[in-house]
UniProtKB/TrEMBL annotation:
<feature type="signal peptide">
    <location>
        <begin position="1"/>
        <end position="19"/>
    </location>
</feature>
<protein>
    <submittedName>
        <fullName>Endo alpha-1,4 polygalactosaminidase</fullName>
    </submittedName>
</protein>
<feature type="domain" description="Glycoside-hydrolase family GH114 TIM-barrel">
    <location>
        <begin position="52"/>
        <end position="278"/>
    </location>
</feature>
<dbReference type="InterPro" id="IPR017853">
    <property type="entry name" value="GH"/>
</dbReference>
<dbReference type="Pfam" id="PF03537">
    <property type="entry name" value="Glyco_hydro_114"/>
</dbReference>
<dbReference type="InterPro" id="IPR004352">
    <property type="entry name" value="GH114_TIM-barrel"/>
</dbReference>
<dbReference type="InterPro" id="IPR013785">
    <property type="entry name" value="Aldolase_TIM"/>
</dbReference>
<keyword id="KW-0732">Signal</keyword>
Length: 299
């Protein structure tokens, strides 16, 4: 069976599972089978520890030079999928940079081009901090959501994205307005990853400390915000054990975090840590890294 057929099989398996009782547990054997099938798709690759990276999803023109001076052959640049044009993505790739594209999978933002395609039946509570334009999704309703997400993945593939950052992929722990379970989340995330693999793209885990051990078997890397601040970094060691990158970002705001506060721990854990201003900006600069970019913050 071809790699594409393997990934398609996984997606069909998981969608069938999701179509049943939303409260039924995801069995260990079913999850293991899905993981094994997903891992056989050969056209994508996980990102390994020791990858320098940048994250700019502020909607402004991408600063394509940020990683130019980094003395590391492995580089990843995370951009907004919808707001970044294909030309920018191709120029980054021409420099040997692996381009990850951000898209939401657990919420609907009013300002996205496909926002009108999400019916009211899948929209839950407002997302805290973004109440004016963002609402949680009922990830159990895969018959509605998966076609929308597959269309986004198709757009990402067309633009040339190498991987996908799936934001709000741990919504089961939030006040969504729906009785979501951990198993609902595992089913949904694994189906999305299989679909990304089917298109030749990797997909990571975004935060999700409570499902990190399980998702390390399926996701290709993880992007975590503030695991040092919230004492959650140990949850991501399972990715490192599988030679999958842990991209950690800490923020200067609101606590005055500095490189010296977390880089020794990140370096010891083999995480790829950076420091940025705040989670509500994520502009090109300021940015500082724990390793491969000078002595600052090395542990």
């Amino acid at each position: 069976m071809s790699a594409r057929s393997f990934a398609s099989f996984v997606l069909m398996l998981l969608l069938a599972a999701c179509g049943g009782d939303s409260d039924s547990p995801l069995s260990g054997s079913a999850f293991a089978a899905a993981s094994a099938r997903a891992s056989q798709a050969a056209t994508w690759k996980p990102l390994a520890p020791g990858t320098s990276w940048q994250w700019q999803i502020d909607g402004n023109r991408i600063n394509e030079k940020v990683l130019d001076g980094v003395n590391n052959p492995r580089k990843m640049f995370d951009v907004d999928m919808e707001q970044t044009d294909a030309g920018t993505i191709q120029r980054l790739k021409a420099k040997g940079i692996y381009v990850v594209c951000y898209m939401e999978v657990g919420g609907r933002e009013d300002n996205r081009g496909d926002a009108a395609r999400f019916p009211d039946s899948v929209l839950g509570n407002p997302v805290e901090g973004y109440e004016d334009h963002e609402r949680w999704l009922d990830i159990r309703q895969t018959e509605i959501l998966m076609p929308l997400m597959l269309a986004r993945l198709d757009q990402a593939k067309k633009k040339g994205c190498d991987g996908i950052e799936p934001d709000l992929d741990d919504s089961y722990r939030q006040e969504t307005g729906f009785p979501l379970t951990r198993d609902d989340q595992l089913r949904y995330n694994t189906a999305l990853i299989a679909a990304a693999h089917d298109r030749g793209m990797s997909m990571g885990l975004k935060n999700g400390s409570g499902i990190a051990v399980a998702m390390a078997k399926v996701a290709d890397w993880v992007l975590n915000e503030q695991c040092n601040r919230f004492h959650e970094c140990d949850d991501y060691a399972s990715f490192i054990a599988l030679n999958k990158a842990v991209f950690n970002v800490e923020y200067t705001r609101p606590d005055g975090m500095k490189l010296a506060d977390f880089c020794p721990a990140d370096n010891q854990a083999n995480f790829d840590g950076i420091l940025k201003l705040s989670s509500d900006t994520l502009s090109a600069l300021p940015r500082a890294a724990c390793r491969f970019e000078g002595a600052a913050g090395r542990g």
